[in-house]
Amino acid sequence: MQEINTILATDCGSTTTKAILIEKRGEEYRLIVRGEAPTTVESPFEDVTRGVLNAIREVEELSGRKLLDGEKIIKHSNKVGQSSSVDEGVDLYLSTSSAGGGLQMMVAGVVMTMTAESAARAALGAGAIVMDSIASNDGRLPHQRVERIRKLRPDMILLSGGIDGGTISHVAELAELIGAADPQPRFGTGFDLPVIFAGNKDAREIVEKTLDEKTSLSIVENLRPVLERENLGPARLKIHDLFMEHVMAHAPGYKKLMGWTDVPIMPTPGAVGLLIETIAKQEGIQVIGVDIGGATTDIFSVFQEVFNRTVSANLGMSYSISNVLAEAGIENIIRWIPFEVEEGDLRNRIRNKMIRPTTVPQTLKELAFEQAIAREALRLAFEQHRSMAVGLKGIQQERTISDAFAQEATGASLVDLMGLDLLVGSGGILSHAPRRVQAALMLMDGFLPEGVTRLAVDSIFMMPQLGVLSTVHEKAATEVFNKDCLIHLGTCIAPVGVGKERGPCFKIRISDFGFRNSAPRTPQSGFEKEVAFGEIAVIPLGIEEKATVTIEPAKGFDVGEGKGKRVEREVEGGVVGIILDGRGRPLALPQEKSERIQKLKNWIEALGIYPDFK
Amino acid sequence: MAHAYTPGLKVTEKFLVRKERRLPLKGEVLSKVGEQVNCDTVVAKTNLPGNVQILNVAGILGCPPQDLGEYLLKKPGDTIRKGETVAQSKGFFGFFKSKAPSPCDGTLESISNITGQAILREPPQPVQVDAYIDGSVVEVFEREGVVVETVATFIQGIFGVGGEIKGELFFVSDKPDEILTEKEIDEKCRDKVLIGGALVTAPAVKKAIEKGAKGIVVGGIEDGDLKAFLGYELGVAITGSETLGITLIITEGFGRMRMADKTFSLLKEHIGERASINGATQIRAGVMRPEIIIPLDSNPPHSPFMKGGKEGGLGLVVGSPIRVIREPFFGQLGKVTGLPSELQTIETESKVRVLEVELSDARRVLLPRANVEMIEG
Questions:
Q1: Residue A99: which of A260, A261, A265, A235 has the closest Cα?
Q2: What are A174-212's pLDDT values in tens digits?
Q3: Are B326 and A37 a contacting pair at CB < 8 A?
Q4: Which one of A168, A254, A395, B105 has the largest count of C-beta atoms within 10 Å of its C-beta?
Q5: pLDDT category of residue A243 using cuts at 50, 70 and 90
Q6: Minimum mean pLDDT among A126-135, A318-327, B218-227: which range?
Q7: Is the pLDDT of residue B53 over 50?
Q8: Among partner residues B3, B253, B327, which is closest to A363 by beta-carbon distance?
């Protein structure tokens, strides 16, 4: 393989196309510049490559490196620093895409909480939005299911059902429903809708007979070959292939773009998920990543080495902001606003943001409104994620059938906040918060991390490009992710438990500051602080700095080792530092309005969230 | 980004409007290129496949699915009436026969010997597409639809609910800052498109429906009133399919919002004329805004007017008229006096691209570029 010195990667979002240039400097890969331009999938351009070229041109201008020869990307770079009159070309060009609404799928399975749920996990993991799940026991009448399939016009359907050797008739029934609906794809006319069958291998023949003529049918290994095991890989891979072959190939300009890239284009969320998975694996940690956009909020998690992704298709900060209001309720938004607000006025403001989604808050009050809404969007999306990231794992498990049923009945989530090591936020409201501490507090309020948790944000949202890069050059992807993509906010320490207001919550002692970037400063080693219940505080600890801390929770509080049990940990710093969150878990805000506002003001002042709320 | 500004809504006296009128499925086009049509002319029609009904024949007869063949009285492709027997068991010495009757009129599409189910398709449903606007057919999409073109006064709203309707413009407010209440609504409003001022109240919308008005165009509405009107909390801004008995278009935003003078006076010029309006709004990629189209009588052959939505625009320049679309100066008009290229820190401490604006009351303010829209003619 030729040496890779220069990498260009683009992400075609629904509104903006972002390009990044990565170069090998010395022994490590670093981000050099980033450019962006409006996406051009829609009329009047209807050619995604226009936006891609515009974004690359911005990168050219900013970096001084010649990347384009007319409308062609110059492949094979001259080495950086080589004695050439001009630096030019790239060794690798990659792209991700969520333009045109991303990948929209429907899934079907025999039992809603078993094969249909596994199918949904496979689709979500591949980066799709799951428009609906159809199952033999979904409570709908057959003709209602047929109508639903016809109405939704998904990009593709994933049909599962039956463990190998199990039911055939239920699978055949689902295939018949799909056949009766005669579904038409969203893009392009005159071609058949892709359907993937990943169910009982004994039902393949009958499914083929039912659907082969009406759809473009692919058959892959069963995604639930036995009750105790999921096998999502083959279905996910097939989804990626079909995404390229059918969906992308029919989207405007993508055929051309596919000819430019060195590896297949990936759906944006699929690429982000891959990166999160890679990081969790490399560091051996449990991670949650969130990308809160204008229209959707994606959550990725890796717990116990199991990757899960959910997309809340209608929770977002601009196009979908009204839906946050509809789902959370106005009271839940108001509870985060640190001043009096008239409900009707806030409702109108939210609607006005929806109808003019590109506007930005100009006043502090408007910023506080948006950040309050973001907390609720994060909370709701995380609730959905917790309910989806359950049940069987993607690896072989020793479990009896009764265990499987028991788990389903209790809906036990894999998400374990106490075991969470790293929480990464991404998306405009988090990445572009004027003060980084605002992003930290939004993440804390939205997810309520427990115990000791590192917090970070994606500086400029380049996780999609790094995700696809990780499939071909893991070293470059990891180095840029760690050095240029992630902004470490610090570590949050939050005991679980509820106490008396201003009563003891926990005590922290810094036994050793370990590595410090800057000259010695306060606090010094041996520093101690008692945190009262309801209080929040911060200890400065900079980026790449570490400290060993001893946390002594008060009676009834737990930081990971059990109630009242002491914990010693090494914690990492960041642009915010060590955040001491004594507000308790679950977090309860005062019911009385003036008390609640005063409480919010105290926290805002303690962390320096806003300039004027002292 | 080079063009980080919001293109404004169109409020244009004369505009060459082109409307695609397509069938949901292929069918028959009834108009030809060059044909003059009025808004009610049917330009294309088709039949949508009927709904599917599923009949568990094996279950009803109590037989294994693979044995169904011997009991069937109908075969795939046969037409069938409601109540007609699809299959019948042989019974016991000819007695106690079980019958599986069809739940609907239609055709028998298929029978599965795996699931024992029959799929029955109801008769097709006819669908027609009308011209929506008075004009001439300028393009035909074979078996799919046509493009109708007309020169019209064209006004885009910011948000709407309800689909396409046609009606006569009727003023119920005298000034663009007035509130439209139920008092202004009476029998004269029947079949009319009502033009209000800054706000319409929920009782006024309710009374307008009662009195048979077809549409309301107004500057703003309180969100709480919209919720009362819809009967639910609006989630995502994809509208147009509501069937509430009226189409509502707001031109400025939520809350009490004085209708822009240009919009108000333009509508006033056409009192009593027939307009085609559509509340359908989609605020996502492929933005769709509600619209008011008032076809004009004169139809100049080579119009100098811009065509629907294809122009890129020059962007903001010094002197461009703008409207502020976010607090704290929401709704105010002004003109661009400067476009500093450097990022500037605003009250929130964000660094953004800004522009200097002289508001209509002569105040000079600095605003994020994202928070203004161009007033387009």
A1: A265
A2: 998 898 887 777 665 567 889 999 999 999 999 999 999
A3: no
A4: A254
A5: confident
A6: A126-135
A7: yes
A8: B327
How many domains does chain B fold into? Answer: 3
* Number of residues that this document lists for chain B: 377
**pLDDT at residue B143 in the model:** 87
Shortest CA distance from B66: residue in chain A: A169
Within 8 A of B48 by CB-CB distance, chain A residues are none
* Contact in structure between B338 and B361 (CB atoms under 8 Å): no
Q: How many other CB atoms sit within 10 Å of the CB of residue A99?
A: 26
Question: Cβ of A44 and B350 within 8 Å?
Answer: no
- Flag if B1 and A42 touch (Cβ within 8 Å): no
Residues of chain A with Cβ-Cβ distance to B327 below 8 Å are 349, 362-363, 365-366
DSSP classification of residue B213:
-
CA distance A99 to A257: 13
Residue B174 lies in a domain: yes
User: Is the CA virtual torsion A144, A146, A148, A151 positive or negative?
Assistant: negative
Q: Residue A456: which residues within 8 A CB-CB, separation 6 or more?
A: A422, A423, A424, A425, A486, A487, A488, A489, A574
The identity of residue B363, as a single letter, is R
Strands B192-195 and B199-200: unpaired
A316 with A425, same domain?
Answer: yes
> If you average pLDDT over residues B198-207, what whole number do you get?
95
Residue A38's pLDDT is what?
78
Residues A447, A386: contact at Cβ < 8 Å? no
Identify the closest residue of chain A to B239 by CA–CA distance. Answer: A355
pLDDT over 90 percentage in chain B: 61
| CB within 8 Å: B224 and A41 | no
Which pLDDT score, from 0 to 100, does residue B307 have?
Answer: 45
Q: How far apart are CA B309 and CA A598, in angstroms?
A: 50
- If we measure between CA atoms, which residue out of A3, A62, A52 comes closest to residue A31? A62
Cβ proximity of A22 and A31 under 8 Å: yes
**Mean pLDDT across A445-465:** 94
- CATH at B213: 3.50.30
Domain end residue (candidates: B274, B289, B304) = B289
Question: CB of B347 within 8 Å of any CB in chain A?
Answer: yes
Domain end, chosen from A58, A82, A99, is at A99
Check whether residue A88 and residue A121 sit in a common domain.
Answer: no
Say which residues have a Cβ less than 8 Å from residue A167's Cβ, sequence separation at least 6: A110, A161, A200, A203
The closest alpha carbon to A32, from A510, A566, A530, A479, belongs to A479
Residue A209: count of CB within 10 angstroms of its CB = 14
Contact A550, A471 (CB under 8 A): no
In contact, B275 and B167? CB cutoff 8 Å: yes
pLDDT of residue B5: 44
- Going A183 to A188 to A189 to A193, the CA torsion angle's sign is negative
Q: Are A390 and A310 in contact (CB under 8 A)?
A: no
Q: List the domain range (segments joined by +) for residue A321.
A: 287-394+413-607
Omega into B49 within 30° of 0, i.e. cis?
Answer: no
- Residue A79: per-residue pLDDT: 54
Tell me the per-residue pLDDT of A516-547, one tens digit each, with 9 for 90 and over.
555 555 566 778 999 999 999 999 998 888 89
In angstroms, rounded to a whole number, what is the distance separating the alpha carbons of residues B8 and B260? 12
Give the DSSP letter string of A267-332.
EHHHHHHHHHHHHHHHHT--EEEEEE-SS-EEEEEEETTEEEEEEETT--SSTTHHHHHHHH-HHH
